[in-house]
Each structure stands twice: as C-alpha cells, then as structure tokens.
Amino acid sequence: MSDTSQADTKEWVLEPETEYRFELDPGTSLAIKLSRGNAEIFGAELAEGKTYLFGFECKAAVFTWQGCTIVMRQPSTEYVSEETPMGSYANLHMAFEQMRVRALSALHGSPVPGNDHGANPEPPRVLVLGPENSGKTTICKILANYAVRVGQSRSPILVNTDPSEGAWIVPGTVSAVVVTSPIATASPVNPLGSAATTGPTVLASNALSPLTYWYGHSEIKKNPLLLDRLIRNLGENVTERHCNDPEERTSGLIVDTSSSFVSGSSSADSRHTLVKACVDAFRINVILVVGHEKLNVEMQRLYGSQLTVVKIPKSGGVVDLDYNYRERVQNYQLHAYMYGQKIDPPPGITSAIVAGEAAADLVLAPSSSVVKFEDISIYRIGEENMAPSSALPIGAIRTLSEMQPILLDPAAAGSGLLNRVLGVLSPFHPDENERYDEEILDLSVTGFLVITNLDVPNKKMTILSPNQGSIIGKTVIIGSFEWRE
Amino acid sequence: MSSMYSQVPAYSHGIYPPTSGYQQPVGPGYSYPQLPSTQPPTPVYHVDPNSFRRDFTTRLAELTINSRPIIQSLSMYAQEYTRWADAVAQCIHTHIRRVPPWMKLPAFYLLDAISKNVFEPYARHFATFVISLFLETYQQVDQPTRSKMEEMLITWRTGAPNGKELFGVITQLSIERGIWGGDSTSPTDVSSQNYLNTISKAQVLSELEFTLGQKDRALQANPWDVTAQKHIEVLHQLRNLVEAGVSQDELRQILNQLRSLTRTAPQVQPSLSSYPTHPTQSTTRSYAHRHGAPATHPTYSYQSEQPKPVDASTLVPAAPSSASSRPLPTTNIATLYNALLKAGVVSEGGASSSDHLHEAKPPVSDTAGYSRDASRSYRKAVLSEKVKLTTADILKKRSSVVDLLYNRLPVQCKQCGLRFTDDPCGKRQMDDHLDMHFRQNSGVGQNVGRGRSRCWFVSPEDWTREGTVDAKGKGRVDGPRSISKKVVDAAQRDAELRAQFVVVPPGDEAKSIYCPICKESMKSEFLEDDEEWVWRNAVRKDDKIYHATCHSEAVTSALSLAARLRNDGCSRSRSRTPEVSALRSTPPRSTAAGPCKSHSASPDMKRAMLKRKVDDEDGSLIAVSEDGTPATKKLALAV
C-alpha cells in the first residue's frame, strides 16, 4: 500500500453518526481507505488501513457511529450527510436481537428474561416492503450484517424475491442464502454477496450457497402465477431447513421484495397476492414498510391483527435509478456470473481489495462448448408474449396456460434462442413414480447457460457454461433475458 | 507427562508384520482393484516410448470422473508397461497439473492405485514429484476433496509392501507438514519423534475422520459388529472433544491411539488369524500401566475388521467371535473416552490420581462454561434496552447498538474487520477465524490464472440439510459457526449422562440385564470410592433400567417431535414413552437407524430419524389441508 501520490488523495473527517455518500459514473472506479476510527458500509465494518475498491456505477455510503477519517483516492459525486436513518435501523436490529435471544433461550429451555407476556418467543422473520427506490435491499443488507456481527454465531437466512434484482446470482431468480459473515459492498453487481466459486474466499458472503428458482423475467407482471409458485417452493425449503437446524432457525430470516408487489393499478387485494405469498411461505411475523404512509396503513389493515407492521424511515441517500441503469446492472450481473467482476483500480492504487477479496480472486473462467441440439431439452413456461389474464376479453379463457411447459425446437425458425440465458434445472425425481406433469415448475436451478451460437444446418449450438461440468442431458428453461459478451 | 504414550508404537517403526492386500478405504464408488495375475495382456503393443506416451495420455484423458473401471484399466495398463514407468509418471504428473480441480482427485486415486499395486518401480518414480503435486493440488480443491486427499495421504503411511511409507518417510512427512503444519526442526530426522512434535487439531480431526470412515465401512460390511459400533460411538465423542479444543498432550494421546487403532485393524483378518495379537498387547501395556485399570484397555485398540463378509462365520454377530480371540475381558467400552477425560485431568492437574472418576471433569466444560457465560451476558446486554417494534419507538435515539457492535467486541481482525470479544470464547473464535484466513491466503497466489469458475448451486435436498453437516468437515469450514456451541454442549451432555449410574441391588451382580431401548446388556462395574457395584450410564425409570444416553435420546426426540405429531392421531403420538420408541426401532440390519445408536454424538442418525418423521408429518398435514399449492402437491406425492 503506497501512500506516495498525495496529490490525488482527499481526506474526509466524518463526525459521529454521519455518512459519506458517493455515486460512480459508468466506467469509473473509486478507492477508499479508512485511516482512523470506525466506519461501515451498509452494516459491514471496514478494516483500518485496507483500500477498498468500488466500481460498476456503485452508489453507496460510508457511515460512522463514532467518527472516522477516510482517504479517497479518486473523488467523484460525493457529499456528507448528517441525516441518516441508521439510528432507526439500529433500533430495528436491537429489537430483532431481542427476539433472537429469546427464541434461543426458549430453544435451550432456559428461562426467558423479560418475557412477561408469556408469548412463545419467535425469531424475527422479516418482510421488507416499499415503493421503488426506497432502499429495501440496502436495509436487508444492513440488518443481516448487524446480525452476523454481534459475535453470537448468528446465521440469518436472506431471501430475494425480486426477480429484477440479481442479489448474489443473476436477475430473474428468486433465491435464499444463509449469511454467516458480513456482506461487503463493492458494486451493484453483487448487492448481497456472491455465489460460490471454485476458489477460496476471505468472506463467507462471497461464497454463498444459494437455493435458487428461475423465474426468467425481470418484470413481475409477466407471469405472477409462476412467481407466486416459486416463492412458495422457496418457503417450503426454508422451513424444512429451519426444522433440520433449530439453532439456525433462531437467527430468523429477512425477505427482500420487489416494489411491484405493492404497487400497480389493479385493486388492492389482487396486487397484494405476492405479499401474501411471502407472508405465508416464510411465516413472516414482522413487516417493515419503508417510508410509505399509505402502504403502511394498507398493511396494518391487512396484517395488523396477525403480525407486527412497522413503518420505517427511508434514507435520504437513496438514488432514483432509471430503467436504463437497472438494465445495465442486469448485464453486469450476467457477465459477472460467468466471468466474475473485475474492477480496475484508479491510477496510483497498487493494492486494493474488492468486496473484501483480493481483486484478482474475483475473476472467473467459464467454459464454452459445442453440443448437439438433442443434448439439451429446452423448455419455455407459457407463451412467449402473453397478455396478462386480466387483459383478456371478458369471458375469454386462455388456450394455453401460463404455467404450461413447452418444449422448444432450436431448429425452428425464429426460435429466439440465440444469446438467451437458460436456467439449468436440478435433476428430476429419481423415482419415476414420484414424477408429475408440472414437476418442471417446481425444480430449483443449479446454474445458468447462454447460447452463444446456433448452427441450424448441423444441428449444433455453442453453449457458454459457468464451469466445465457436463451439461449433456440437462433440462433447461429459457426466460426473457438475453446476454451478449 | 505423556512420555508413556511414546511407547505406543509410532507407525514409522513398522514393527508390525507386513500387511498384504491392503484395501484402501476410499469413498463410495471406488475401491482399489486387486490386480489378478492372469490379466489378459493389453491388445496394443507399443514399441517406442513416444507412441506409448501418446496412447497413455489419451486414455488418461478419459479419467474425468471417479470411475473404478477406468482407474482399474489404467492401473493394469501401467502394470503392463513398467518399462516405461517414467513416461507413465510424467503423463500422470502433467495430467494432474493440467486438469481443473474437480478432475484432480480421480487422477490422484490412479496414482495411488498404481503405486500401491505396482510398488516397484512406480512408487519411486512418483516420489520425485508427489510432494509438490499433492500440496499444490490440495490448495486448489474444495473441502470435501481435501478430506478425501487427507484420507488417501494417511493410507500412504503404511502403503508400501513392507508396511512402511509408500513414498518414503521424508516424502510422507513433507506432505503431512505441508497440509497440517507442525514444525519439525530437522527434516532429515526420520525418527518417530517427528510425529510427536506439534500436532494440529486439523490433523487429528482428519485422522479421526479417516478412522471413522474405516469403521463405518466395516460396520456396513458387518452390521452386527457390536465392537465396531462402539468404536464408532467413541470416535464420534472423540471428534466432539477435539473440535471443542483440547491440549497438545491430549491431541497427542488421541493421535497415538488412533494410529494404533488404524494400524491394528487391517491385520486382524480371518485369514491372518494365526498372527499373535502382540500389537494389541504392546499398546495395551503402556495404556494399562498408565491407568492401572485392566478393565480399560484393549477395546479401543482392537478391531475385527473383515474386508468382506465372505463366509458364514462373519455373518453371525462378530462380537462373541472377536471376544474369544481376545486375551482380555472387554467389559467396559467407552473407556477410551473416559480414559481420555481422566488423562485430561491428569495432564492439567499434575499428580492427581486417574482413579477418581467423579473428579473427571471433561476438559470441554471450561470452554462450554465460557461460551455459556458469554452468551448469557450478551443476552442480558441485549435485553437491558427497551425497544418496541413500533413506528414511533424505533425513531428514538439510543446508543446501545454501538456497545453491541463495537465496544463489546474490542478484538478486530486486521484483514476483514470482523470483531470478537476478548474473553476466552472470543479468543478461540478469533484463532479459528485467523486460521481460516491463513488457509485461504496460502491458497491464493497459486490460483491466479489457473481459472476459478462459478460452482453449480446445490440441490434443495442438500441445501435444507447444509447447516447440519458441519461435523463432517464439509461445508461451513469458515464462519463463526464452525466452532459450534452445539458440539461442545452435546459432548458435555453426553459425558454427564455417561457418568450417571444405578447401584446394583445386592445379589444381582451376576445378573445380566438389558436396556429396553437398545437391547444391549448393561455393564456393571465396581466403584472403588463407594465400594459398590453399579451399572454405569444407567438410569432407573418406572422400575426399568435404561442406558442414560438411550433414555435421554428417546425423551428428547419424542419431545421435539411432540409438537409436530400433535395433529397426528395415530399411535405415534404416544412415542413419548421409551417403549414405543423402542418399537419404532428398525432391525439391526439397517445400521443407520437403530434408536440404540442415536446418541447425541451421532447427529447423522438422529437427523435421519428426524427427517423421516418430518416427511411423514408433512404428508399427513398436507392430506388434511386444502392448501393445494404446487410445492405441497409435490410433497404429497412424495409421501
């Protein structure tokens, strides 16, 4: 770590409970070093003296509880804010910790102090709701980070039900991971950590083992029935995992959602079906509504009797993200799934870490291979272009269900398979008798492929695969995502 | 303190008769081929080394998975062409270096098979590069593969035809030091003392896993082998103990005994019955001498591991037959564990007598106590603040979170910023955390440019069970949960249960009674302090005497299931009573599920039972619910 080029560096002294916010432009990177004091980024503490790199249009904030000095290597859009909702988020964390220690005490059969209501202590199972650009994902990250930092071997489950978010994988998915180490922030590519690679990592949150279902689209309205089903499938598995490991269960879970769960023009009841799916599937007992009075009232009315609904403040640092930005981020994520992410340090920086890891360790090598058309069965769920059920003429019934798997022929003209992202399904049930027609809808995915070339005359296609494992004989599902290198 | 233990033959002394036909116990799907001498020659005849090399490389390329037939045929091929052993060695060397990490293990199995089957000339050819190759590969592969490699490495200790190190003692030591550490000052000093220098926890755990694997397979081959069952039980406890953290002395003792256990095993084969049991005795001598308790000895060093149940004699319960060949009574199993606890007291307390079983506090209790204290004080700190989950209350300003996240955790990792308490519990977590960084760092540099890639995701079946596999060393190698409190607690609970006893009514000393749960006989022993005969690990309930461990297990599993079984109107809801639990027991043929084996120390079995229950339960619940969501449909169909 060289401190030579003094001219480029800028030092910020942050007062206690303030945060330094920055936004990066495309193609730029930023290096930040904590030189004194304590600081954290979205709940993950920075190590003193380490240089942290940020890139891919990252928008983030360095917050300090007790004051600190940070050194910037390449300042960009930046400012310091004294008004943060961190105090409220910390209170939430305290309340959740109280629920966790009570649940743990109950599990160990010891008396639960302060539990005078006689209620059965349950760990926090939190659903975070809010409108677009309210910082839902960041709140999930802060709450998970605080939970794993208390030194009590907490391992909360983090669930992403927003298919427009990549979380730790790629967009188009709903998935769950167990968090055991703080989640570092470096770019919007892996907002909630990164799925495991073959190499070792410093932070467990960069080697997450997700349980993943493939929805295949970024927009909820494309096939809400399918999303509902996948969320319930995910919930079944989370519940089973918690049954297997009662100790882990006491760490609770945190569910991130899409703003589309609670917005939209249709009637309140129908647009809240996905909220209901989450509440049921994950046995939610706390709903956090981020900065939206009307939504808070609605949720109080719907769920106030059976669980706790809390309105929490929205951070002033949340940046309004436009559609193009989200699309670029989705592209970054698909690229990073295959190739990892590479952030070039700003000039003058020789040694820096990205999301807690040595920068070179995040580079991945996918594998490209040519397979015959018949080596892989490709399905699509429902019609390619399907109007929502509500848009059909009154009395009309679909000829093709949106849940019907359709086998695709790569040789067919206009198959639209080129550059498509494919979700590779887990194997079908080994016992023939246990199989059923719609099993394909209930299988999780083991990874993603991209068709990079179609050779129709020779009935062959080139497939980009994340690793060298065989893909012959796999069943895959296409979605609406395309990706080109 | 433990000088006596150095009398336990260290393996490099090779005082045992050579073992022939050593079967390396490897994971399922592969076992070493015994090359028949009447092997038909390979149809291809090579006249020059170059074409041979080409051909061998091509064949080698097929070895992408752990396939026994491929390894077998390649191994035979190598046997055929010993004159070009150097080419074979080179090909394998290049192959292992070139292929991606997940293909390396099968190639190592090939290397292992060739050098064991065709020791001369292959072992010396491989010996020239095996150190660097092994260590390099070890850094690149994932944790399960590492465990497999460690297992293989341990078999190399006695892999040569004369029972010595397969690739020579120096090679063996270099590799072992490379992966387990240990700071031998004189690498050329090949005496057994080398093994006794510094012993790392990882090494002991790995050897424990290896021995456990061996016993598990023995048990599979012979489910009636009570001795093996008990060995496994003891080994599980040992593993808990080691994971909880024990002193160097104890590690050394455990290691020595493990080695004698593993080494003895292959010799006690039916075909070798003429061998005297002198290895057992030599181990016994030092051990018995140490504790002056004849009842405590030979059980741990004895094992009737039969490679295959080929004749009728192996189909009958093995315990009586092995007992008959045993020179000494085997009335008290679990003595290895108890003896170690005692030894722990001796080594900590100095001169206290090992006979005082009541004083034999398990060494784990300290750490368990610390972690209990720590979590209690944390709980107090968290609950001292009044926070309500309401919109108004969470807006109030509080400073307690700074205390919880910073002030209570003054020790910080310089590399990643994670914090720990400065009490003994936090120190241990910090040590483990730094170990994790060290392992990771030592692997980094070498990985640059070699290609990491994204892994496939796990299946739901694996994912839902992930959190419970940490005992096996798979998964959760890092993260604070690797030093699981559960393990410590379980070990301690188990020790407490085992210390319970019931006084034998006068006149009943000779009567043999059986635990109603596991149907095994209760062992009576004489307590010198109280001058009474007692049944150890026993508890009296409703005028019946149970094994304390069996009873506790039955009660807890019944309780934890009680809630889930409440809707279940059938007879299973009465499974609170141990008798009913006993009825649920599967016949001993299925070794995995017998309730008598479901000690707190064997999470696998417990989990298997629980899982089955959960499945049943889900099914019955679904049958009555009208939910009809897809996933439940799937479950309903699966039941």
TrEMBL record, chain A:
What domain of life does the native source organism fall in? Eukaryota
**Sorted alphabetically, which InterPro entries does this protein's record hold?**
Clp1 (IPR028606), Clp1/Grc3 (IPR045116), Clp1_C (IPR010655), Clp1_C_sf (IPR038238), Clp1_N (IPR032324), Clp1_N_sf (IPR038239), CLP1_P (IPR032319), P-loop_NTPase (IPR027417)
Q: Where is the Clp1 P-loop domain?
A: 130-340
Entries under SUPFAM superfamilies matching the protein = P-loop containing nucleoside triphosphate hydrolases
- Main location group: nucleus
Q: Where is the Clp1 C-terminal domain?
A: 364-485
Keywords (A to Z) from UniProt: ATP-binding, mRNA processing, Nucleotide-binding, Nucleus
Q: Name one Pfam family in it.
A: CLP1_N
The record's PANTHER family line, in alphabetical order, gives: CLEAVAGE/POLYADENYLATION FACTOR IA SUBUNIT CLP1P, POLYRIBONUCLEOTIDE 5'-HYDROXYL-KINASE CLP1
Partners and quaternary state?
A: Component of a pre-mRNA cleavage factor complex. Interacts directly with PCF11.
Q: Which family does it belong to?
A: Belongs to the Clp1 family. Clp1 subfamily.
Its protein name is Polynucleotide 5'-hydroxyl-kinase GRC3
Protein species of origin: Pisolithus microcarpus 441
| Name of the coding gene | CLP1
UniProtKB/TrEMBL annotation, chain B:
Q: Which InterPro entries match?
A: CID_dom, ENTH_VHS, PCF11-like, Pcf11_C, Pcf11_CID
Name a GO CC annotation attached to this entry.
mRNA cleavage factor complex
Q: Where is the composition biased (Low complexity)?
A: 312-327
List, as start-end ranges, the regions of compositional bias called Polar residues.
265-286
Q: Where is the CID domain?
A: 48-183
Tell me the GO BP annotations in alphabetical order. mRNA 3'-end processing; termination of RNA polymerase II transcription
The protein's GO terms of the molecular function aspect are: mRNA binding; RNA polymerase II complex binding
Q: Where is this region: Disordered?
A: 265-327, 349-372, 568-606
Query: Gene3D superfamilies given for it?
Result: 1.25.40.90
Q: What is this protein called?
A: CID domain-containing protein
Supply the source organism for this entry. Pisolithus microcarpus 441
